[in-house]
Inverse folding.
């Protein structure tokens, strides 16, 4: 098992601090959890602890950005989008160069239960016209995405996991903003996934291959702008099932359906979380909500059997 | 200096970013009132009450207190001004026009499709705007960020934030107040346009702010109570704010709809445009007012 994407983010941010003197970090009493503590210790003058007041944190980040600083403002994904009014107005509408970082995404966080789970963040963040949305699938991708964002100009959202993730990529992996990554080819079905569940899709594809099904797996690390070209190519070849640890409204599934909405014959099943979250281990929750390899394979079979 | 600015000066307007005399400012304030009401009338919508109450504050900032260059909105050395009560922006547009930032004929485009003069301020369409506002309660947080950024900047500048009294009811304002004190933002000055009236009625009845000065003081701010229509008092208060190491707040006691008898002290004119007759009467009252 590799690192959590939040941990990789924290290490990348620390490194970026040395090379990017206008990069600052903002925190709302979660530096240990969102992994900005190392940056805070190395660059105390560029770290702003604003207390449990995320709305203010986001506004302060906007102000810093409007005067030329490059802020990373981090909290749990649910608390970031809980301040959507500040994001919409102070960050988005101002086109402020703010990176919002939402950790503890999805039901994968486990025991803390629904109140700490980001399950609606992709829906809200995608809705702002100038907001780019990135969700890495492993630690290496999280580091590379963080490095990309250090130089990106414009409002951006980075979605990260609490839980450790299996490594998918080597250290020499190149993050290509806006491009989906084909991890496995297959003409019977394409599993299009984002974040920590990408690895589970690979396991599911392997299991399905034992049954004679050829299943492709695609990692969508950039949800906005999404890779329309890749998706349209896939849709021409096979049915698509999207997989994400996020609500089924407004996340990757919606983004894929929007992308394919004018494509004749495209078939998509959206698979994700269909209820509020709850306490339990991350593993138990993934099993219950069909986001482990077994659940994803089962959904895939059901989808293909209902081919009409 | 741009030709248009020179022309504006010849036409008797004032240069922003320099210190105008009190008499010049008084005369300018009458014109800002007239301009704001004409704009709102032409747009057939807008917020006269809160535009009129902040005229002396806005005039003092642009024509006395702030470092500012017309024609150079992105000048790095400029002082930053965030009008957090975004609905009061017609007064700011009028001041910018009088300063020569754009032609006064543009004022009549307020709220029209394609105009840089949006109903609430928009920094993308009008670069003289430091931050978009209008969703109340957010401007002070943005101002805190601007003031913090100054510490990393090679330029020295101050940050000013104009708050409506009603918006001080928003919790985010107090989050920003706490952060300003924590970071000892001595170069941040907030001004509360305390006109005592908000959209639905009197502030004291809707959600009283009192004791407002004590609240700010207990949060670690330097508090200055001032008559928000007294230009000399405002000038002196801004000067005192500059001398203090704490963030300062001017609690500017003002009159909603100031200068137009039928608009004063009533919520009825918070968000309603004057018709032709009302505009004429208002302009006549403003122009005939004694100094």
């Amino acid at each position: 098992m590799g690192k959590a994407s939040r941990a990789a983010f924290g290490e990348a941010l620390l490194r970026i601090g040395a090379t990017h003197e206008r990069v600052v970090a903002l925190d709302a009493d979660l530096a240990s959890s969102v992994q900005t503590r190392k940056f805070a210790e190395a660059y105390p003058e560029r770290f702003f602890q604003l207390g449990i007041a995320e709305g203010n944190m986001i506004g302060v980040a906007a102000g810093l950005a409007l005067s030329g600083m490059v802020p990373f403002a981090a909290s749990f994904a649910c608390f970031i989008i809980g301040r959507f009014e500040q994001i919409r107005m102070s960050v988005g509408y101002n086109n402020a160069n703010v990176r919002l970082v939402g950790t503890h995404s999805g039901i994968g966080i486990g025991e803390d239960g629904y109140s700490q789970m980001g399950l609606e963040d992709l829906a809200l963040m995608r809705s702002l016209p100038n907001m780019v949305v990135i969700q890495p699938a492993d630690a290496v991708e999280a580091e590379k995405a963080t490095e990309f964002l250090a130089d990106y100009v414009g409002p951006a959202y980075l979605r990260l996991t609490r839980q450790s993730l299996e490594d998918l990529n080597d250290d020499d992996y190149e993050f290509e903003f806006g491009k989906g990554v084909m991890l496995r080819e297959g003409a019977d079905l394409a599993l299009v996934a984002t974040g920590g569940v990408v690895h589970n899709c690979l396991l599911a594809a392997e299991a399905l291959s034992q049954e004679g099904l050829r299943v492709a797996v695609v990692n969508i690390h950039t949800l906005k702008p999404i890779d329309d070209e890749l998706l349209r190519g896939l849709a021409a070849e096979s049915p698509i099932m999207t997989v994400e640890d996020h609500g089924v409204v407004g996340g990757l599934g919606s983004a894929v359906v929007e992308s394919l909405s004018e494509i004749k014959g495209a078939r998509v099943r959206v698979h994700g979380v269909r209820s509020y979250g709850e306490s339990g281990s991350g593993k138990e929750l993934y099993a219950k909500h069909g986001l482990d390899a077994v659940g994803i394979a089962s959904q895939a079979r059901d989808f293909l059997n209902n081919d009409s | 200096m741009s030709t248009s600015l020179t022309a504006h000066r010849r036409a008797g307007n004032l240069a922003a970013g320099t210190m105008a005399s009190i008499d010049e400012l008084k005369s300018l304030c009458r014109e800002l009132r007239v301009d704001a009401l004409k704009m709102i009338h032409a747009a057939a919508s807008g917020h006269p009450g809160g535009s009129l109450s902040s005229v002396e504050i806005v005039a003092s900032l642009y024509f006395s207190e702030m470092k500012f260059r017309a024609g150079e909105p992105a000048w790095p050395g400029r002082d930053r001004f965030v009008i957090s009560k975004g609905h009061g922006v017609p007064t700011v547009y009028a001041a910018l026009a009088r300063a020569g930032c754009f032609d006064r004929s543009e004022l009549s485009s307020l709220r029209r499709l394609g105009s840089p003069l949006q109903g609430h301020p928009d920094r993308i369409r009008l670069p003289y705007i430091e931050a978009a506002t209008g969703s109340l309660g957010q401007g002070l947080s943005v101002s805190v960020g601007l003031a913090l950024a100054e510490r990393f900047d090679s330029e020295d500048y101050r940050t000013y934030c104009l708050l409506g009294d009603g918006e001080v009811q928003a919790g985010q304002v107090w989050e920003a107040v706490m952060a300003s004190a924590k970071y000892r933002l001595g170069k941040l000055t907030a001004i509360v346009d305390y006109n005592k009236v908000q959209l639905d009625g009197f502030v004291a009845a809707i959600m009283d702010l009192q004791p407002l000065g004590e609240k700010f003081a207990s949060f670690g701010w330097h508090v200055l109570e001032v008559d928000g229509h007294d230009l000399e008092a405002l000038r002196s208060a801004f000067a005192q704010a500059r001398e203090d190491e704490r963030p300062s707040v001017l609690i500017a006691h003002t009159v909603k709809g100031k200068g137009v008898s039928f608009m004063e002290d009533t919520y009825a004119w918070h968000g309603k445009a004057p018709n032709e007759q009302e505009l004429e009467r208002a302009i006549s009252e403003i122009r005939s007012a004694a100094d």
